[in-house]
Specification:
alpha+beta, 2 domains, 285 residues, Multidrug-efflux Transporter 1 Regulator Bmrr, Chain A, 9 strands, nine-stranded antiparallel beta sheet, Arc Repressor Mutant, subunit A
Length: 285
């Protein structure tokens, strides 16, 4: 089963079992991919975790029933797999901004999240240069934070991580063994509810207190890069999506476990020559 067919079959499975207790393992089972690979590809393409997509679909369908009939809140809670009316109400209010009772009122504004489908689209975009390369076998020194929550929340956490740790960056800058202003954004231990993230540099010095060594093992990567820009960090999420949509969907490779590395070439502030080289771990299918 190719990647797009697997994704679409999974979306059909979710709709058929929307009232069941669905998790990443259950949904990935209907494809030929591991739960870890499927979850990461889905997140790259949809810019949302699978669990959040399922929650949004449940709350969308529940809203239709509330506005179109006289279904009781407790019955909808049971139907869509919630343990109580209170837990259902919290999930509903978080998505729609109104309670289930308020949603019944004529004129209430609610959100709709349609079923996803995946296709190859001819967009006429610039070509994406890439290479397959074995990298790794070296150590970095950096500091770590765990990111959790929805995808958008994690991106905000990453921005805050950079902005809020200038003192730590000054320590690493003094240790760095290259003259160029290059940083390593490293993420690993990816899971449905988040991942671990490190800001690192190359150095021959030991990790000081509060910092750690990060061993990057030898690994096969697909390597690509953003365009040069003043703020290339805003381009990286779209680049991940293109890797999944334009490259993984048609290649003989799948995502592999291992660190994802963003090599940030950060030239002097104010220039438009900055870029990010993205290393995504892969393996043969």
């Amino acid at each position: 089963m190719d990647l797009l067919a697997g994704l679409n079959r999974a979306m059909d499975f979710i709709e058929e079992h929307i009232g069941d207790e669905l998790d990443l393992e259950a949904v990935a089972w209907v494809t030929t991919y591991s739960a870890r690979h499927f979850g990461r590809v889905f997140c790259y393409l949809a810019d949302i975790t699978l669990s959040e997509y399922i929650r949004r679909r449940k709350m969308t369908l529940a809203a239709f029933e509330l506005q179109g009939g006289d279904a009781r809140v407790i019955d909808l809670a049971v139907k869509y797999g919630y343990e109580s009316a209170d837990s259902f109400t919290r999930a509903f209010t978080k998505l729609h901004g109104v309670t289930p009772t308020e949603a019944r009122v004529m004129g209430a504004t609610l959100k709709v999240y349609p079923k996803l489908s995946f296709h190859i689209t001819i967009k006429g975009e610039n070509e994406m240069d890439y290479r397959i390369e074995e990298k790794g076998g070296f150590e970095l020194v950096g500091y770590k934070r765990e990111f959790t929550g929805e995808v958008g929340e994690r991106f905000e956490q990453l921005q805050d991580f950079w902005v809020g740790t200038r003192d730590e960056q000054a320590v690493l800058e003094a240790m760095r063994d290259t003259a160029e202003n290059i940083w390593y954004d490293v993420s690993g231990n990816r899971r449905e509810d988040g991942f671990d993230h490190y800001i690192c540099v190359t150095t021959s010095e030991d990790a000081p207190d509060g910092f750690c060594k990060v061993a990057i093992p030898k690994q096969l990567y697909v390597v690509t890069r953003t365009a040069a820009a003043k703020y290339p960090t805003t381009l990286a999420p779209d680049l991940r999506g293109r890797i999944a949509e334009e490259w993984l969907a048609t290649s003989d490779y799948a995502l592999a476990d291992g660190f994802e590395v963003s090599v940030v070439h950060w030239y002097p502030l104010g220039t438009d020559k900055k870029y990010i080289e993205l290393w995504v771990p892969i393996q043969r299918r």
